[in-house]
Amino acid sequence: AHSDATNTASRIEGLAKQFDCSILIHEETLKGLPKDHNWKYRSLGAHLLKGKERPQQVYEIFSSRDRESV
Fold first, then answer.
1. Around Cβ 61, how many Cβ atoms within 10 Å?
2. Which 3 state secondary structure label does DSSP give 58?
3. What is the pTM of this model?
4. Coil, strand or helix: which one is 44?
5. Which candidate, 2, 50, 45, 53, places its Cα nearest to that of 27?
6. Per-residue pLDDT at 37
7. 3-class SS at 60?
8. What's the rounded Cα separation, in Å, for the pair 23 and 60?
9. 68 to each of 23, 30, 40, 54, how far by Cα in Å?
10. Nearest C-alpha neighbor of 38 from the set 70, 69, 64
11. What is the pLDDT of residues 8-26, one digit of tens each?
12. Residue 16 contacts by C-beta under 8 Å, 6 or more apart in sequence?
């Protein structure tokens, strides 16, 4: 559902501000990336987003220049 995706994106945007991250993505987005992608990422854990029944896994995406360690 389009509105569900929009709401989820909005909730993840709020988490990005909370964690002071530029780019956060949902687990399903990470799974959809090409296998040969060069993005670095780290899990920020599972979060219960408003409107969701189960916690959602969220990841920070960054370049190696953005973070010294994962």
1. 18
2. strand
3. 0.80
4. strand
5. 45
6. 87
7. strand
8. 6
9. 16, 21, 11, 32
10. 64
11. 999 999 999 999 999 999 9
12. 22, 23, 24
